[in-house]
Automatic annotation (TrEMBL):
Gene Ontology biological process terms, A to Z: DNA recombination; DNA repair; telomere maintenance
Pfam families: Exo_endo_phos, PIF1
Keywords: ATP-binding, DNA damage, DNA recombination, DNA repair, Helicase, Hydrolase, Nucleotide-binding
Organism for this UniProt entry: Aldrovandia affinis
Domain of life: Eukaryota
Name of the featured protein: ATP-dependent DNA helicase
Length: 907
């Protein structure tokens, strides 16, 4: 074709540009390297400075240019300029547009220019293209072989790397409603709450400038013990508190995270609304023995993470030692600090009895002499209460036993009998229930068999491979390229109604990750070409919360499917593959279900080949009823004995200081009778009654004094009663006789909850005591004490308060009951300087104050316990809560004087 030919009109031009199939085959690959397409109607489908894959496919089908123009009637320009590098091409295009605008030439002229350029290109490139493409293909095949010499056949592509996500400094906290967060906090069991409060207290200390040592906790426990649940809570609360650090206030950039919530795999990261470790820390895909620094990216990552204080890593059992060391070095580099993990606190969360890292790497917990052992600084917290199977206790307990079962140990008769109830034949298992296997081969066979059995209409979708031409910067189509198991597949199968799994992390935050399950509900072919080439696959995801950003209305207004496009991935330095990141998933491997909770599953134990695998697979369903086991063999259920030894040698965290009452009750060090008195300014019972009820330590109080009840009227609704307690409430409006201004204000009020099992009575009438918010209870047994709860509002002057308080003490002291304990919120900060009139009053009458730590988030000490006989106090201090500005204060009284009093007297 003559590039300088003059064309009479467009149809003549098109006629001359028509190609035969053979002609096309020779030239199209070269053409693709430089075609620039702009479309009027669907600019998003157009790859300026690249190539348009839809158009190429149409060409592939031996369509002529006339057809393409008809099909894409929106085309304004189609230019090819193959022999030019990219920047020249851009310039060519821009100048073309400028010229067109300037000269106001009509569309036919534009098309003429385009076709002339194309004709010129064809002449130049036609002779070269065939030979070059074949050389490219062979080169790529060779490169692929060199990159992955030995693939581990049986394991899935773990780890998952979110290498495609653009790095954004903002690693925002998931936005959960306050009510939802509160309900999560309330649900925490005792050990979960101990972790929660310990981290919370640490954060407060950081905010108060106490510089506490970093925390290193390993939060362990069997499958479904709520490890992920607790870290979600920790993340929310710690983020909230640490954002009060002065540097957050000063820099006012709330998008910078104080807490990094991460996991190794995309699925685990989405499960906790976190990010993958690799994406947060920009870790390299292949960890080489020597640490590779961040290079040019250091400033960017440092800026994003400079305010991070706590790192949380979920599913730690699949983190290798090498990766853990990399994380440590990365933080040292980012923080410019030689301390472990650059001075960060680390919460490593997971269960080493579940699946280990891929390949031959040893578990992190297992000590090896020559490897950097960062693990030794960690203290273990063991969650033991199974939450996933909480409604099927027998199954939960069985799972706990098989978690640590040795290979040589037989199952107990009862356990074997229980598991046998779930044993089934594969033919009896419903095909729509997820089948879990050990090996990919089994998964593939099961998928194929199910497709056949369900008579699904399968569409084969081949991958599209391209190579970047180093000379022109353009793209060249490659054919017959065989990927290996790490690549997107050479070919995938899709069918309406087929169960599938996403195989790449497309958007971790949105839950479209490697391991997201769904069912194909729509297969969208390439628009209008009549070809079988697929443009989009619409999925109904198992998790309805996932994929919000991927939803489109392709099949009409009611369409709510998640549409997945082809994913582009680098196969080697210059070769790119485009394929749907998806595979059939009527079945999957055990690796893929770690961390998941499901109602039903079919587990095949036939080819289980490593420790923990059977346990992971068997522990997914919420009940035994939902589980079917095929090829049951009890010797396939076994734990790694090295893990057992490592666990036994690990030091355990103590929550003695954060959870003193729980510790006291559990340690049972004190055999004699005791009386536990707690005071708590609840900042209102109506909003916080549920928080009080779910608090494990408040529930240990024999006498619970609450100030600021915010109750009104004379009648107390049953919803403010606590089970097992008698309530003696004294609301604000009945407390003031001479101060109408105070009596009519909202808020205030006092209540004492007294365990019904105590021998105790309320004392209601005190003649000379007016204008004071208080309530008194006299306990006779098991430990005698007279207990008064008092609230002094901040706006009640000392001139009113002191004489009335004095009158109350006079009355209490005449009642012949020792010790007298007066607790409450007095709004006089004992940690600040200056005269303390209330303390002087109590001291003048021989009372001691037992609380030494700050009792509010602003680090003031305004909640006290005064006691007339401090030697009868065994222990005292503060407790932790999340729902009030005030922490509760407590004391444990005993019958006879404690030798060296544990009480603390603030002078
Ligand atoms: N305190 C709790 N109250 C109510 N539900 C809970 C609680 N803790 C966990 N759960 C629920 O129990 C199930 C299992 O919890 P989670 O996923 O946190 O366990 P896990 O220990 O991380 O499990 P795995 O080891 O399998 O990853 C989830 O559905 C979770 O919401």
């Amino acid at each position: 074709m003559d590039a300088n030919a003059s064309f009479e009109d467009l149809s003549d031009l098109l006629e001359k540009c028509k190609m035969t199939h053979d002609e096309y085959q020779e030239s199209v690959k070269a053409l693709t390297s430089g075609m620039v397409v702009m479309m009027k109607r669907e600019p998003k489908d157009c790859w300026v400075n690249g190539y348009n894959p839809d158009l190429l496919r149409a060409w592939n089908a031996n369509m002529d240019i006339q057809f393409i123009l008809d099909e894409f009637s929106c085309i304004m320009y189609m230019m090819s300029y193959v022999a030019k590098p990219e920047h020249e091409m851009t310039e060519f295009l821009n100048s073309g547009i400028r010229d067109v605008k300037k000269s106001n030439v009509n569309k036919q002229d534009e098309m003429k220019q385009i076709m002339q350029a194309y004709a010129k290109h064809r002449e130049v490139s036609a002779q070269e293209s065939v030979a070059r493409v074949e050389v490219d293909r062979l080169e790529c095949v060779a490169q692929r072989q060199a990159i992955h010499p030995d693939e581990h056949e049986e394991q899935d592509q773990i780890p998952d790397y979110e290498v495609h996500a653009l790095y954004s400094g903002a690693i925002d906290a998931p936005k959960l409603s306050p009510d939802f967060v509160r309900s999560m906090y309330r649900s925490l069991n005792e050990t979960q709450a101990s972790v929660f409060y310990t981290v919370r207290e640490w954060c407060l200390k950081r905010v108060w400038g106490h510089n506490p040592e970093p925390l290193f906790y390993f939060i362990s426990g069997g499958a479904g013990c709520g490890k992920s649940h607790v870290i979600k809570c920790v993340y929310q609360e710690a983020t909230k508190i640490l954002r009060q650090l002065p540097r957050f206030r000063d820099e006012a950039d709330m998008s910078q995270p104080a807490v990094l919530l991460t996991a190794f795999t995309g699925t685990a990261a989405f499960n906790i609304s976190g990010k993958t470790l690799h994406s947060v820390l920009k870790l390299p895909r292949n960890l080489r023995p020597h640490y590779q620094g961040l290079g040019n990216a250091l400033d960017e990552v440092r800026a994003a993470l400079s305010n991070a204080e706590i790192l949380i890593i979920d599913e730690i059992s699949i983190v290798s030692k090498e990766l853990f060391a990399y994380v440590h070095w990365r933080f040292q580099q980012i923080k410019g600090n030689r301390k472990p993990f650059g001075g960060m606190s680390v919460l490593a969360v997971g269960d080493f009895y579940q699946l280990p890292p891929v390949g031959k790497a040893k578990q992190l917990c297992i000590c090896e002499g020559d490897v950097l052992d960062l693990w030794k600084d960690f203290q273990m917290v063991n969650l033991t209460e199974i939450m996933r199977q909480k409604d099927d206790r027998a199954f939960a307990q069985l799972l706990n036993r098989i978690r640590t079962k040795k290979k040589t140990d037989p199952l107990s008769v009862d356990d074997a009998a229980l598991l046998t109830q779930a044993v089934a034949e594969i033919k009896d298992c419903p095909p729509d229930v997820l089948h879990i296997f050990a090996m990919n081969k089994e998964v593939d066979a099961h998928n194929a068999a199910t497709v056949t059995a369900l008579r699904l209409q399968v569409v084969n979708i081949p991958a599209e491979d391209y190579r970047k031409d180093p000379r022109t910067g353009g793209m060249v189509i490659l054919t017959d390229l065989k990927g290996n198991s790490r690549d997107l597949p050479d070919n995938i199968q899709a069918a309406q109604g087929a169960g599938v799994m996403v195989t790449r992390n497309l958007d971790t935050e949105d839950g479209i990750v490697n391991g997201t399950f769904g069912t194909i509900a729509n297969i969208v072919p390439i628009a209008g070409c009549g070809l079988t080439t697929v443009k989009l696959i619409g999925l109904q995801l198992d998790n309805p919360m996932a994929g919000q950003k991927f939803r489109r209305k392709i099949a009409g207004a009611t369409d709510d499917l998640v549409y997945i496009e082809r994913f582009e991935e680098q196969m080697s330095k210059r070769v790119v593959r485009r394929q749907f990141p998806m595979k059939l998933a009527f079945g999957c491997t055990a690796h893929k279900v770690q961390g998941m909770t499901m109602k039903s599953a079919v587990v095949c134990l036939k080819r289980v080949f490593e420790s923990g695998m059977a346990y992971v697979a068997l522990s997914r369903t919420t009940s035994l009823e939902g589980l079917r086991i095929i090829d049951f063999e009890e010797k396939k259920i076994y734990a790694d004995p090295n893990v057992t030894t490592a666990m036994e040698n690990m030091s355990h965290a103590s929550f003695r200081s954060t959870r003193p009452l729980l510790h006291f009750v559990k340690s049972a060090e004190h055999a004699a009778p005791t009386l536990t008195v707690v005071h708590h300014n609840a900042e209102g019972l109506p909003p916080h009654m549920e928080d009080l009820k779910s608090h494990h330590e408040l529930g240990l109080a024999n006498v619970l004094c609450v100030t600021e009840t915010h109750l009104s009227g004379s009648f107390v609704s049953p919803k403010f009663q606590l089970e097992g307690y008698d309530m003696f409430a004294h609301n604000r409006h009945v407390s003031y006789t001479n101060r109408v201004d105070m009596a009519t204000k909202d808020g205030g009020g006092v209540a004492v909850y007294c365990r019904s099992s105590l021998q105790a009575e309320a004392r209601r009438y005190f003649h000379d005591v007016t204008d004071l918010e208080f309530s008194v209870v006299k306990v006779e047994s098991p430990v005698r004490a007279l207990i008064a709860a008092v609230y002094r509002p901040p706006n009640l002057g000392l001139d009113t308060f002191l004489p009335n308080m004095q009158s109350l003490l006079d009355s209490l002291e005449t009642m012949d009951c020792q010790p007298v304990v007066v607790c409450g919120d007095f709004n006089e900060d004992l940690l600040s300087k200056g005269k303390k009139a209330i303390r002087e009053l109590f001291h003048s009458r021989g009372y001691s104050q037992l609380v030494s730590a700050a009792t509010t988030e602003k680090q003031t000490l305004i909640d006290y316990i005064y006691i007339s006989r401090p030697e009868l106090c065994l222990q005292s201090g503060v407790l932790q809560t999340y729902h009030s500005y005030h922490v509760p204060v407590y004391c444990i009284l005993t019958l006879s004087a404690v030798g060296a009093s544990a009480s603390f007297v603030i002078e």
